Amino acid sequence: MILTQILQPTSVKVPLASTKKDAAITELIDLLDAHGQLGNRQVALDAVFSREKTRSTGIGSGIAIPHGKCNAVKELVMALGVAKEPIEFQSIDGKPVTLVILLVSPLDQTGPHIQALARISRLMLDAHFKSALEQAPSAEAAYKLLSERENE
């Protein structure tokens, strides 16, 4: 899976305005909604918050991948936010996050959802790439970094 096939340049926010977990998730949902990627903003928001209540999606190493499945989308959509100041996310390692990668997928499409989660996890194992993404000066620069990495 190539993430730039699901991540639109308009769905990247650098820096995130939010400094709290729920606000950061809402900010990324609003970004997707503002660009017509959600059929129903509230349904998508509820799905992501519902998943978040079961266990934090802060996977450690400064990364969170909030996600949810719902009928607000016909295909997998993604948003990326880079926080200027780390956000407390109740991560498994107890550390705050700077990279928030949001996924919303249809109820009936598990494959692409799992593939995207796996691809994001693999990319973030590259400390040099992760650091460059965290230091991206703009949404355009962050998208370009990801796009170049995906096309290597």
Descriptive report:
By secondary structure, the protein is α/β, with parallel strands linked by helices. The protein has one domain (3-150): 3-Layer(aba) Sandwich (Mannitol-specific EII, Chain A), CATH 3.40.930. Helices cover 41% and strands 25% of the residues. The protein has 5 helices and 6 strands. The chain has helices at 21-34, 41-54, 110-124, 127-134, 139-150; strands spanning 7-16, 58-60, 63-64, 67-69, 77-87, 97-105. Strands 1, 2, 3, 4, 5 and 6 form a 6-stranded mixed beta sheet that branches. The longest helix is centred in the C-terminal third of the chain and has 15 residues, at 110-124. It starts with 6 loop residues before the first strand and ends with a helix.
Give the arrangement of secondary structure elements.
Layout: E1 7-16, H1 21-34, H2 41-54, E2 58-60, E3 63-64, E4 67-69, E5 77-87, E6 97-105, H3 110-124, H4 127-134, H5 139-150
Parallel strand pairs: 1-5, 3-6, 4-6
Antiparallel strand pairs: 2-3, 5-6
